[in-house]
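Example record

The entry below shows one chain as it appears in the dataset: sequence first, then structure tokens.
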Amino acid sequence: MPLVVDPPVGLSITGWRLVGIAMLMAIWWVTAAIDIAATALVPLVAFPLMNICSVRGAATLFGHPILFLLLGGFLIACALQRWNLHKRIALTIALHSGER
């Protein structure tokens, strides 16, 4: 829609293009027409092509330290679940919190 319709008053053409990419990505996420991981990488390609920002600018959005913190937490959680450590921890807590 942003490629066909003029942007609203007060919104730059770059902002309107960004709205279009966000709408397209939201549709792809909701319908799962394209894999979620592939959809998440669309800004790396679309932002430079639509002159929203440079390739370097788009790539730095994916390198924020908070994202790496979340990724590390998810990896630790997967490892805990893989080796059933979450059950072992819960059992140990339950055993030590019982009646004496």
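Notes for this example: Residues 13-31 form the longest helix (19 residues). The mean pLDDT is 90.
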